[in-house]
Specification:
Blueprint: E1 5-9, H1 41-46, E2 49-55, E3 66-72, E4 77-82, E5 87-93, E6 95-100, E7 103-107, E8 112-115, E9 121-126, E10 131-137, E11 146-150
């Protein structure tokens, strides 16, 4: 670590009707969700990542987990960072790599990854198509996840 960390919180909540939850569950159609990215212009410029936040308290009547669909542009990267909650990836499309505490793991459709709490990690796309994966946190909302980026 270089001694300099950039700390970023997840972006603000989307507006709109998210339907009923409770004991009947919550159903979301990904086509109804817009893509989001970092609000910080510097981070946005260096990180070729966008996401659709699917489940997150405050946006949906859900709790206990937050989940989204991430997309890293071809040959793009989600820079080295860490956050307190553990995270799970489920790769849907594309190819790439995730580096977790210096251990490099290949990413391809069907691959699942567990990232321990506080682990330093970076994720990159390889090739001519985007890397798409579901990300899941054991938090009530995505806003609880504080990304600490390292230079």
């Amino acid at each position: 670590m270089s001694g300099h960390e950039r700390v970023r919180h997840a972006p603000g909540a989307l507006q709109g009707d998210v339907g009923a939850g409770g004991t009947t569950g919550t159903v979301i159609d990904l086509r109804d969700l817009g893509w989001e990215t970092w609000q910080d212009p510097e981070l946005k410029a260096e990180s070729a990542v966008q996401w659709k936040l699917v489940f997150s308290a405050g946006r949906t009547p859900t709790g206990a987990i937050s989940m989204g669909l991430a997309e890293i542009a071809p040959d793009g990267v989600l820079p080295l960072h860490r956050h307190e909650p553990a995270e799970v990836y489920h790769v849907l499309e594309g190819r790439g790599q995730v580096e977790i505490e210096s251990a490099v793991h290949e990413l391809y459709p069907g691959r699942l990854v567990f990232i321990p709490p506080g682990a330093r990690h970076r994720t990159s796309s390889a090739g001519s198509s985007p890397l798409r994966f579901l990300f899941i946190f054991p938090t009530n909302s995505f806003e609880e996840v504080v990304y600490q980026f390292e230079d």
